[in-house]
């Protein structure tokens, strides 16, 4: 879907109530849209879901980390770094 993900994602999920999230990749860089999207999908995340982040735990762009902390908490997941790019991280929901 084209458009601002903070507007299109809730609409998509409302129109597709069967949707479960297996993989979501966040390259939003800043806090509010990342938080909005995490809050939109958190009840559709299942065991084994992969959440990827372009700037997680990055000093110059703390928004993704703060949004993850607020929406899902940091104590529940082991964050893994992509070995070819230190800025890229992911976690797998247990």
Largest sheet: 4 strands, mixed
**Arrangement of strands in the largest sheet:** 1-2-4-3
Q: Roughly what percent helix?
A: 25-40%
Task: Classify the secondary structure makeup into a structural class.
Answer: alpha+beta
Tally of DSSP β-strands = 4
With helices defined by DSSP (H or I, 4 residues minimum), what is the helix count? 3
- Poorly predicted ranges: none
Principal-axes shape call = globular
State which percent range the strand residues make up: 25-35%
Radius of gyration: 13 Å
Distance between the termini: 29 Å
What string gives the helices and strands in order?
A: HEHEHEE
Estimate the mean pLDDT confidence.
95
**Total separate domains:** 1
Can you offer a commentary on this structure?
The protein is an alpha+beta fold and 94 residues long. The protein has one domain (21-92). The chain has three helices and four strands, in the order αβαβαββ. It has helices at residues 5-15, 31-41, 63-71, and strands at residues 21-26, 45-53, 80-82, 85-92. The longest helix has 11 residues, at 5-15.
């Amino acid at each position: 879907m084209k458009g601002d993900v903070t507007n299109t994602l809730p609409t998509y999920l409302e129109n597709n109530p069967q949707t479960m999230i297996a993989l979501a990749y966040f390259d939003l860089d800043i806090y509010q849209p990342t938080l909005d999207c995490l809050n939109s999908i958190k009840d559709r995340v299942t065991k084994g879901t992969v959440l990827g982040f372009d700037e997680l735990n990055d000093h110059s762009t703390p928004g993704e980390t703060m949004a993850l902390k607020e929406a899902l908490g940091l104590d529940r997941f082991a964050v893994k770094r992509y070995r070819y790019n230190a800025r890229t991280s992911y976690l797998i929901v247990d």
